[in-house]
């Protein structure tokens, strides 16, 4: 294992942050960051490690190293391991039955997959963890028995698996699921585009922003309608979502201009699709693109623009039509904007709203827990935030 300071330097480089930018976001001096990275100054406080992890957008456990494993990290690890084992059976290739369960008919399997997706979109992550190991096994057996009708449910099973694993901070296992999805989808441009949505999430979560942008653009333009005005809404939703993924990757890579251009392009498609739809589980529409603009503003540190846009967008009908998971995840990002604006009260307010909409986004997702811990340490943090952090053992 690398020393803590070296891990900080490594992830700072992956996030394209200078020592000065990291120092500013932590409220420290550049000299302090330099000493930490060189090992001259030790990091003994868990709270300081959590602050750094939040700015670097990684699980705090990555900086803790081997010896410190919070209970929540252990629980997530157990769930991830069960899913990893389900993905490691290779039933299709080995042509062996994993159990005495009968092969599930494709129609029933499709309903089970839809249930898993709905449960995920309601941010009931522990329940999805319980569903997925058996669902993966069933989907693989159905596909082996009936490749024609079992193909789409299997791709969708791998997609929801990858989406959950990214939420749980396990991009390495998510990569296995999404790679399987892409392979099964080969030859079907729509299924490839759908699987590519999760591929973009996995690549960004792994810090591979340049690759993510390139792959997302290739996938988007492969499914793009020849004329936007006459495009199929479902395919336009996939294309627009992939453009949003590419824009977020560009923003994380420090390429703000490209991010804005790609979001403008996605907005044209969103205007044709409209709000209130969820084609291929994308939630794509005008509001989704506007939320992405706010996340990009947060990423470049423009707190004023992010807060102003946020207060406008969340009053629309389109906001309430988005899946609970989408809204709560977005609010975690907006909490950072309020912290950058030195407004812990509103940062706490949006986190409590996220907890109301989708509790698991705060209580089980590493990024949500880290955001809560950071706000709770602010002197002006709301009492409810401090109480929730204490309940979750984040004090």
Overview of this protein structure:
- The chain is an all-alpha fold.
- It folds into four domains: 69 residues, 434 Repressor (Amino-terminal Domain); 117 residues, no CATH class; 114 residues, no CATH class; 66 residues, no CATH class.
- The protein contains 23 helices and no strands.
- The longest helix has 21 residues.
- The mean pLDDT is 89.
- Keywords: DNA-binding.
- Pfam families: HTH_31 (PF13560).
- It comes from Micromonospora echinospora.
Instruction: Provide the succession of SSEs.
Output: HHHHHHHHHHHHHHHHHHHHHHH
What is the first-to-last residue Cα distance?
26 Å
Which oligomerization state do the chains in this entry correspond to? single chain
Major sheet attributes: none
Helix fraction by DSSP (H/I, runs of at least 4)? over 70%
How many individual domains? 4
Mean pLDDT: 89
Keywords: DNA-binding
Organism: Micromonospora echinospora
InterPro entries: Cro/C1-type_HTH (IPR001387), Lambda_DNA-bd_dom_sf (IPR010982), TransReg_Diox_bact_type (IPR050807)
Domain HTH cro/C1-type: 8-63
Please name the defining characteristics of this protein:
about 400 residues; mainly alpha; 434 Repressor (Amino-terminal Domain); globular
Task: Write the topology of this structure.
Elements: H1 4-14, H2 19-26, H3 30-38, H4 46-56, H5 60-64, H6 71-87, H7 91-94, H8 106-121, H9 125-145, H10 147-167, H11 171-185, H12 189-205, H13 209-223, H14 233-252, H15 256-273, H16 286-299, H17 303-313, H18 317-321, H19 324-340, H20 344-357, H21 359-363, H22 366-376, H23 383-391
Helix pairs in contact: 1-3, 2-3, 4-22, 6-9, 8-9, 8-10, 9-10, 10-11, 10-12, 11-12, 12-13, 12-14, 13-14, 14-15, 14-16, 15-16, 16-17, 16-19, 17-19, 19-20, 19-22, 20-22, 22-23
């Amino acid at each position: 294992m690398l020393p803590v300071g070296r891990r900080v330097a490594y992830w700072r480089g992956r996030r394209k942050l200078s020592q000065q930018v990291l120092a500013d976001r932590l409220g420290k001096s550049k000299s302090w960051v330099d000493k930490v990275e060189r090992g001259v100054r030790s990091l003994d406080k868990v709270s300081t490690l959590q602050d750094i992890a939040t700015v670097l957008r990684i699980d705090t456990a990555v900086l803790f190293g081997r010896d410190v494993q919070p209970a929540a990290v252990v629980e997530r690890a157990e769930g991830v391991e069960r899913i990893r084992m389900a993905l490691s059976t290779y039933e299709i290739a080995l042509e062996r039955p994993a159990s005495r369960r009968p092969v599930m008919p494709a129609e029933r399997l499709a309903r089970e997959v839809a249930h898993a997706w709905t449960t995920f979109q309601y941010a009931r992550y522990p329940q999805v963890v319980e569903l997925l190991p058996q669902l993966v096994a069933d989907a693989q057996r159905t596909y082996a028995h009936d490749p024609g009708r079992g193909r789409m449910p299997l791709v969708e099973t791998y997609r929801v698996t990858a989406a959950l694993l990214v939420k749980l901070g396990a991009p390495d296992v998510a990569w296995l699921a999404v790679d399987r999805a892409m392979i099964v989808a080969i030859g079907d441009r729509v299924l490839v585009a759908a699987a590519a949505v999760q591929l973009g999430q996995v690549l960004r979560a792994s810090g591979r922003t340049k690759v993510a942008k390139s792959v997302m653009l290739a996938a988007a333009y492969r499914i793009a309608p020849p004329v936007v005005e006459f495009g199929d809404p479902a395919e336009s939703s996939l294309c627009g979502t992939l453009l949003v993924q590419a824009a977020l990757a560009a923003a994380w890579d420090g390429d703000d201009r490209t991010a804005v251009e790609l979001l403008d392009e996605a907005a044209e498609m969103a205007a044709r699709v409209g709000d209130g739809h969820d084609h291929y589980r994308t939630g794509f529409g005008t509001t989704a693109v506007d939320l992405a603009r706010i996340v990009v503003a947060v990423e470049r540190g423009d707190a004023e623009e992010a807060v102003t846009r946020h207060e406008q967008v969340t009053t629309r009908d389109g906001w309430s039509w988005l899946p609970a998971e989408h809204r709560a995840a977005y609010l975690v990002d907006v909490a950072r904007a309020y912290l950058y604006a030195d407004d812990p009260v509103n940062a706490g307010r949006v986190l409590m709203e996220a907890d109301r909409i989708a509790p698991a986004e705060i209580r089980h997702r590493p990024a949500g827990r880290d955001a809560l811990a950071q706000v709770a340490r602010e002197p002006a943090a709301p009492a409810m935030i401090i109480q929730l952090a204490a309940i979750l053992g984040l004090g």
